[in-house]
Amino acid sequence: MSLLKQYKSGWVAISADFSKVVISGKSLKEVMEKVKGIKEKVYYFPAGEAYGDFVGTNQLSAL
User: Between residues 57 and 27, which one has the greater pLDDT?
Assistant: First the structure.
């Protein structure tokens, strides 16, 4: 995912249309706290090299 190339570690929240990184942080918890003030739907992804098998979520209960 070329959108995430600049993020080598931590977690990111990506817009529902996958056009931009909305928030980034060192941990999933940190990113989820920052997202609380945003009304837009986001998906969470770990930052790194491979994303093929990862399924993002926008629900804390799904983790």
Answer: 27
